[in-house]
Amino acid sequence: MGTNGKIRSEENILWSFAPHDISVILMLLHEFPEYVQANGGEYLHLQKQIADVTLTSLEFPSGVKAHIFVSWLHPFKEQKMAVFDDVTQEKLFLYPHTIEWKERLPVANKAKINIIPFTLQRNLF
Q1: DSSP class of residue 34?
Q2: Number of H helices and number of E strands within the chain?
Q3: Fewer CB within 10 A of the end CB, N or C, for the chain?
Q4: CATH assignment of the domain containing 49
Q5: Strand 78-84 relative to strand 92-102: parallel, antiparallel, unpaired?
Q6: Three-state DSSP class for 123?
Q7: 48-57: per-residue pLDDT in tens?
Q8: Rounded Cα gap, residues 45 and 72, in angstroms
Q9: What is the radius of gyration, based on Cα positions, of the chain?
Q10: How many domains does the chain have?
Q11: Is 27 part of any domain?
């Protein structure tokens, strides 16, 4: 999300929220998709041809299928961001951001950081 926590009218939701989800999926599967399809819609009408909702489907050679739904509009949206920082003692942090509706507009609320217990294992890959 933007630094002020507002919905972006100049940026497609796919580019704002989905890259993190895609990165996690790729890291967990250790393979690239052989099929990708993304569909989106403009419901806020802040900018034409800039989607506020997208659904992306990915299919992998191993048979795994993944679906990513991102939206500025979902009334129960929780945007959780996990950060792995190898140079800190704690290593893994979770930011449980939320979105609530105020006067018919979704507003982002940034949350306090949570430290997640994590033990680094060697030779994972």
Answers
A1: S
A2: 1, 7
A3: C
A4: 3.30.360
A5: antiparallel
A6: coil
A7: 788 888 999 9
A8: 12
A9: 17
A10: 1
A11: yes
Distance, in Å, from the CA atom of 19 to the CA atom of 70, rounded to the nearest integer, reads 11
Domain, as residue range, for 104: 13-116
Token look-up 């041809």 returns 49
Task: Examine residue 4 and state whether it is found in any structural domain, yes or no.
Answer: no
H or E segment and range at residue 29: helix 13-29
For 17-31, the pLDDT digits (tens) are 889 889 988 988 889
Per the domain annotation, does 5 fall within a domain?
no
Which of 53, 48, 115 has the alpha carbon at shortest distance from 84? Answer: 115
Contact 80, 94 (CB under 8 A): yes
Q: Which two tokens stand for residue 73?
A: 């509009």
Query: What span, in angstroms and rounded, lies between the C-alpha atoms of 44 and 3?
Result: 20
Determine the residue type at 67: H
